[in-house]
Design a protein that fits this description.
The complex is a heterodimer of chains A (about 270) and B (about 250). With about 270 residues, chain A is an alpha/beta fold. Chain A has two domains: about 1-90 and about 165-235, Rossmann fold (3-Layer(aba) Sandwich); about 100-165, no CATH class. Helices cover about 40% and strands about 25% of the residues of chain A. Chain A contains ten helices and eleven strands. In chain A, strands 1-11-10-4-9-8-7 form a seven-stranded mixed beta sheet, sandwiched between helices. Chain A has a four-stranded antiparallel beta sheet with strand order 3-2-5-6, with helices on both faces. Chain B has eleven helices and two strands, in the order E-E-H-H-H-H-H-H-H-H-H-H-H. Chain B has helices at about 10-25, 35-45, 50-85, 85-100, 105-115, 120-140, 145-155, 160-170, 170-195, 200-210, 215-245; strands spanning about 1-5, 5. In chain B, strands 1-2 form a two-stranded antiparallel sheet. In chain B, strand 1 and strand 2 (about 5) form a beta hairpin. The chains are: A alpha/beta (about 270), B mainly alpha (about 250). Chain A: It holds the Pfam family ABC_tran.
């Protein structure tokens, strides 16, 4: 484990070339409530970075600002060096409550981003087919969302995000509405997909174990107003089996250290 | 329904009531209630007359035109009110007044404005049907999950496409329920309008039969009208069920 909190401020002034997403001085005010205070962050390309923090720390708000879904009060987000003014095709979002269209089949839901881009039917179905297989839903192409379990629905959400071939994937507590056993399996699958797809992942969670298990870098936000409290890079051997990782001393120590840091924010 | 362990088919109660009607009619207790068999026979002769066919056509025409306007205006206004608080504040109070107001009282005023013809009837249908469509559409639009809208935006649906691909489809179950309730009210509207204008369509026939105490034809007309209203409502309900099946999880 490496604690790079001190290095983070240096990174803010000299942008690292490999940062896919740069967040500069982001503040967010809701009426007179301050949600985020001057956030400076770099999200390295090809890595999975987690935003972790107590509830109400503004981690989802930050993710939606990066997505261009809500405007920041001040500050700037750049993706691949280009300032964000709204949603864009280089970013894809995975929603906490899946946000699947209940009137559309799995196939149509996964291909929806491509449909909006104007990709022809055959081509988009071929692409969707590939990603449906990749998330392990082959054979469910013509099912409707209500015929699937929570875990399977989120796999559809994930496949939809992969299908548009965005550089940056934004995941907003993707497993929080999925039951515990499915979540574990899902986390393992996600790691495999991170390895396979070589994309930049920004992942919001409130689960410390999930953050340590999945992330290359963990950004811990403090309670409202949200600020960067700590940045941790868990150095865990990902080549080990999932069960070995969960018993690894480094893994357990990191979880414990983060918990000690977060404890003061919990009532 | 089961009675003493025997399963009774759904339409059995209707048959029982028909039987009661027939018996009361045969007893000749009142000229208001002719036997049902006579009414049914009258209905069969009635639908073959040119007068009925012309009246039905006029009525259907007014109804359909009025409903078309009510659906277009109702859905548009409902979407505006559901999406924009300004529109909601501006129109909300009026929609709520009109949805519960006794609109029949307005028909004489409409006659002055639009004359003693079909236009008045069309406007009456519109006024009877439109408000509930507005309210249901508004409720449906407001119930569209925020994340579904954000999903549409983040995958590139902006402007009108956000409405056509996400918002209207997500609100479809409520919009259809509004249209069904609007249709039921529209049937009332067309008959009340025609009765008050009283020189066209079904209203004219109703007026004619009731004034001459031609109860067999009067009841025949009523039954045909009720059946038509229920049939329409059943068709929309059928569409609704299919849509709601897909919208089961939101």
């Amino acid at each position: 484990m490496r604690n790079i909190t001190a290095a983070a401020s240096a990174a803010a002034t000299t942008p690292s070339p490999e940062a896919a997403v740069e967040v500069r001085g982001i503040c967010k005010m809701y009426a007179d409530m301050e949600a985020l205070r001057s956030i400076d962050l770099d999200f390295p390309a090809g890595k999975l970075t987690t935003l972790l923090g107590p509830s109400g720390c503004g981690k989802t708000t930050l993710l939606k600002i990066i997505a261009g879904l809500i405007p920041a009060t001040s500050g700037e987000v750049r993706v691949n060096g280009v300032p964000v003014t709204g949603p864009g095709p280089e970013r894809a979002f995975v929603f906490q409550d899946f946000a699947l269209m209940p009137w559309a089949t799995v196939m149509r839901n996964v291909a929806f981003g491509l449909e909006l881009k104007g990709v022809g039917k055959d081509e988009r179905q071929a692409i969707a087919h590939k990603y449906i297989a990749e998330v392990g839903l082959s054979g469910f192409e013509n099912k409707y969302p209500h015929e699937l379990s929570g875990g399977m629905r989120q796999r559809v959400g994930l496949a939809r995000a992969f299908a548009v071939n965005a550089d940056v994937l934004l995941l907003d507590e993707p497993f929080s509405a999925v039951d515990e056993q499915n979540r574990r399996k899902f986390q393992e699958d996600l790691l495999r997909l991170v390895e396979l797809e070589k994309k930049t992942f920004i992942f919001v969670t409130h689960s410390i174990e999930e953050a340590v298990y999945c992330s290359d870098r963990i950004v811990i936000l403090s309670r409202r107003p949200g600020r960067v409290a700590q940045i941790i890079e868990p150095e865990i051997d990902r080549t080990a089996s999932p069960d070995a990782i969960r018993r690894d001393q480094g893994y357990l120590d990191t979880v414990e250290e983060i918990w000690q840091g977060l404890k003061r924010y919990v009532d | 329904m089961t009675i003493f362990g025997y399963r009774v088919p759904m339409m059995a109660s209707l048959l029982a009531w028909c039987l009661v009607w027939e018996i009361v009619g045969q007893l000749e207790l009142s000229f208001l209630v002719p036997p049902l068999s006579h009414v049914v026979a009258a209905a069969f002769t009635l639908v073959q007359t040119g007068t009925w066919q012309a009246a039905a056509l006029t009525t259907l025409n007014s109804f359909l035109i009025g409903m078309a306007f009510a659906i277009v205006v109702g859905v548009l206004l409902g979407v505006l009110m559901g999406r924009f608080p300004v529109a909601d504040n501006l129109f909300g109070i009026w929609v709520n007044i009109f949805v519960s107001a006794p609109l029949s009282a307005l028909v004489p005023v409409l006659m002055i404005l639009f004359g003693m013809g079909e236009t008045t009837v069309v406007v009456t249908v519109f006024l009877f049907a439109v408000w509930i469509i507005v309210l249901d559409t508004r409720a449906g639009i407001q119930a569209v999950p925020r994340s579904l809208e954000e999903m549409g935006r983040s995958y590139g649906a902006g402007g009108l496409r956000l409405y056509s691909k996400i918002i209207l489809l997500a609100a479809l179950p409520e919009i259809l329920a509004g249209i069904r309730l609007g249709m039921v009210r529209g049937v009332k509207g067309v008959v009340i309008g025609q009765l008050l204008v009283s020189i066209i369509g079904y209203g004219e026939l109703f007026e004619l039969y009731s004034r001459n105490f031609d109860m067999e034809n009067f009841w025949a007309l009523t039954i045909i009208l009720f059946a038509a209203a229920m049939g329409l409502s059943a068709i929309i309900e059928n569409i609704e069920k299919r849509v709601e099946y897909y919208a089961g999880v939101r």
